[in-house]
Amino acid sequence: MTTENRPPYAGTRAPKLTEVPAFTDHIATGWGDEPVPATPVDGAAAAAASHRLRLSERFPGETIVVSAGTAPVRNDDNSYLFRADSDFVWLTGCQVEGAILVMTARPGGHDAHLYLPPPFRPGETGFFANALHGELWVGASPGLREWAEALQITVEPVTALDELSGLKGALASESVSEALVSEHGLERSDSLGRQLSRLRMVKDAWEIGQMRFAVDATVEGFAEVVREIPRAVRDGLGERWLQGTFDRYARTVGNGVGYTTIVGSGPHAPVLHWVRCDGPVLADAALLLDMGVEANSLYTADVTRTIPASGTFSVEQRRVHDLVEKAHRAGMAQIRPGTEYLDFHFAAMEVVAQGLHDWGLLPVSVDEALSPQGQHHRRYLACGIGHHLGLDVHDCSHAEFEDYQGAELEPGVVMTVEPGLYFHANDLTVPPELRGIGVRLEDDLLVTETGAEVLSDALPIDAAGIETWTRSHLHGSEQPR
User: Which GO terms describe its cellular component (predicted)?
Assistant: First the structure.
């Protein structure tokens, strides 16, 4: 083929094909029309409508703009898999990339309009030229009418925002693009993010149902991982095989993982965020698994267990685990209505500090270690003891200190309790037999009217129970499933 006769573009992308009339005419015809329904998670639309009413009450007379956001670039022209902004999902039940919610103030409340980028259908140039919304690239997609019917909200094309007047001074969430803020004279609002976090702290019945699903699925995901331990050890597949096992499972039963899966064997277990997972699974080591399934509604679980890869803890591993369990139980006992948010943190820390002192690992008294000027025990537990849980693994992060840390717990709050001890392999302040041992226990708790429900209680927390549970799954790991 001569240079003169080559087609206008020969790569994987085809923008210059728009300049070839024969091609554009041919690709515009001969396609069947099969509308695709919008399928938000059951109950999401009604829950979102209720959430908008709650937000409306906090901002009378203010117009509000919240965006789903767009996927960040991974490399060159490849983006990460899109995951919608949590505030946007809470308010709409929609997970369309580039979507924007506008809540326009009116007497007594707000009118909600959802602006979506419509998919490019056959006959439109974008059908083959737009890799983000062209159906030739991404497959058939629901249209604006389908989303309006599914969500019971007014839906318009996102281009209609260009002609929309009266947005100057509207409150914009963090997810709204700088271009939109500048174009319409919106005002970034810390108060909007703070109030959304405060509202999201207390889950309604639908949200709690979603979190129950996420936690139950996560528990089964733990079992799937444990079944693969013998193979990971025997075949040298290592931590990453176990990480991939859980990730594949989470992507199958839900949207994926709620955060990057942590699998730490032996000396990697003390590393708080060991997400590289590029080490071996040691047959005689403790294995720390911090994992959570994110449901299709985007609500996530966050559960951690430290298990013996062999099925039996060593004396030293069990010694550390027993102290962490004691701290864990002390922390969970403080999760109930009327207690202050940080009570569980202090209760668990007191147990940890006393235990480390009894082992001779603190250079000061327990009281001095626990004092604001001390904190010596935090060398082995530098992170906090828990956090809110919901659409984000560290939920409601835009709330201010006084919004929750000095406030009392109330029914509907979902949170984690996760004490641990982390003795790094190169930490010369601990005896050699403890170096390289990391133990964390983490459960997800729902505050009820009378106390708390441990949503993740299908997994044992005591060392003997964990050994029995682990061996029951290791034993069946070679059986066909």
Answer: cytosol
